Amino acid sequence: DAKTTQPPSMDCAEGRAANLPCNHSTISGNEYVYWYRQIHSQGPQYIIHGLKNNETNEMASLIITEDRKSSTLILPHATLRDTAVYYCIVRVSITGAGSYQLTFGKGTKLSVIP
Amino acid sequence: KAGVTQTPRYLIKTRGQQVTLSCSPISGHRSVSWYQQTPGQGLQFLFEYFSETQRNKGNFPGRFSGRQFSNSRSEMNVSTLELGDSALYLCASYYKETQYFGPGTRLLVL
After folding, report:
1. For A8-47, what is each residue's pLDDT tens digit?
2. What are the C-alpha distances in Å from B53 to residues A102, B73, B94, B98?
3. Inter-chain CB proximity B97 and A103 less than 8 Å
4. Minimal Cβ distance to B42: which of A41, A97, A104
5. Of B51, B45, B38, B48, residue with least CA distance to B83
6. Which of B55, B64, B13, B61 is nearest to B30 (CA)?
7. Which residues pair with B68 in a beta bridge?
């Protein structure tokens, strides 16, 4: 799976949009971009994933550049509860009975400030 | 649907003992993976089970083992505990290309 690069930390004012970047310049055509977050001492929480098109769900939006070498996770109105470590992961999509594992990097520690 | 559940949530053991952790996946999910998280090494993949068979294994010593039952529930076992085994152990179940994690079991080895 391709490697990802994320800034170690970011701050965001409460109520503003949080834009978390991720670089994955070696991504292959069949690799998805996944985002998880982990609030202190809890299990990672799935946020969103995408292949090439931009995606939106009730939690966030995922913007993937046209060349797919980078992406941005957008939390539209950050709250204090969004303070967490955010992980960007690139992995091959395996359907059927294929094996599955996630390789976590160090992620970005997002601090939402009142 | 209920999420992934893990028991116990907290555990204290002493060196040399063994421990068994349990994971119940989301209903209908047949794949279960285990991860270890420590401050120094971060989140590391231990192994994955599907239909009671281990499909993939991370780079951990043989003291770490697991199994999966016919109802997809899974257990992992660590024998001869070492201080370095103190960690948050996470279980995740997988469905339609997405893994969903449980709250974890925090193990402290004294």
Report:
1. 999 999 999 999 999 999 888 888 999 999 998 899 999 9
2. 19, 12, 15, 19
3. no
4. A104
5. B38
6. B55
7. B74
